[in-house]
Predict the structure.
Amino acid sequence: METKTTLDEIIKTNYSKIDDLKKQNIDPFPPRFYVKNKISEIKKMDIDSKVLTAGRIILLRVMGKASFAHIKDGTDKIQIYLKKDLLGEKYDLFKKYMTTGDFIGVEGKLFKTHTGELTINVENFTILSKSVRPMPEKWHGLNDPETRYRERYLDLISNEEVKEIFVKRSRIISIIRDTLNKDGYLEVETPILCSQAGGASARPFITFHNAFKIELYMRIATELPLKKLIIGGFDGVYEIGRVFRNEGVDTTHNPEFTTLEAYKAYSDYNGMAELVERLFERFTSEFNLSEIEYDGMKINLKPPFKRISLPDLWKEKTGQDIHSVLKGKSFNRDGLYELAEKLKIDYDKQTPSAKLFERIMDWVIKEETVQPTFIMDYPTAITPLAKLKNQDESIVERFEFYVGGHELANAYSELNDPQDQKSRLLEQLKQKFEENLGEADILDKDFIEAMEYGMPPTGGIGIGIDRLTMLLSQKPSIREVILFPLLKPKEETK
């Protein structure tokens, strides 16, 4: 009867092999190995070429006096052939100690097997790293989502398509950088630790600085320091970096995520919409993705994209002017209640006005957010940092860019009147306290003071890199496009 080897027994056996190698003065973890040829380069070389390469053993067939294996580096994989006639006693060392998962350096000449497979005839090899734990699923794929996200290194080893997602993510960021750099933007870095968490309406993470003995906040946006740089004289700045929001986790939200924020002097939200379209021209060209299927939806990614006025769409869908739920720079709560009742949208008297408006808005725009669409012109009450639209006290020049039902970008014609900016932030703070709203922009006095030195007309945009990667990789969960998503601590077995 065949007995199944336990994990503990495999680990014990491999540690024993490591000890044996050391006793033979063979280092199973040498400090370096000089690779002359990457495997992707070898694949283009002629037969009989001499090569020196290295990689992880991913497949192994050990026979009597000859063995075949496949090794894989970061570029490709290739077959290797080892035989006792050529390697002598070293072949016995390979047979006894090497297994899948080990790293090996090999030197030899290229030939083709009778099946036409390019192969390295190994003349010498070096053990580079002896694996202790067995590879997952014998290279047939790692499928459990929890294990895949928690042990991403195993996911990358066993699922080649996962690696391609993160290669694409890197290319997406490179395209963004290249586009902005050519447009005259300067890439900058702004603080992650802040004395105030401004630039967005979100709950921050709080930490403590021991030397100053003060609480600090992890940034929830990069907006305010970037706009200070526009005030300081840069014509265009951007930052690609992590921001942190103390919020829930679902398929489109992770508490730490990556954003692009970019600001351009003498521009506006129309200029930012044009930037989005230029980026998508690059994405569709370089990834050959004019049309995709995303989460069951067929989406055309080729610009130009549709632009819809939110006030016009609101009137069309609800039969009411959007101003019926607005009152200057704040909300008309009675109007919101009446409309929610009419549309059968859940709420209670404790629901903050901003939250109730968002629920109604989600209902209004739902059918218009599958294909790439700019939803233009939002209430001042939820956008205190943008310029008024046609001097309408209740509406500002802001768009949100939607694809596949998800918001990918948010842009403003930035407010540059310090007096108006201060009054709007005060109005939102008043609303926050009156309605017990946990999320609202703070009144950053340093930012108001900076604006008092003069800020040119400016267009600004934020783009979610994770959601953008989800779309272009056609993945429905944000955890698929973040290398190490936040997970609950693993429960220890008692």
Observations:
- The chain has two domains: 7-134, 160-480.
- The chain has a mean pLDDT of 93.
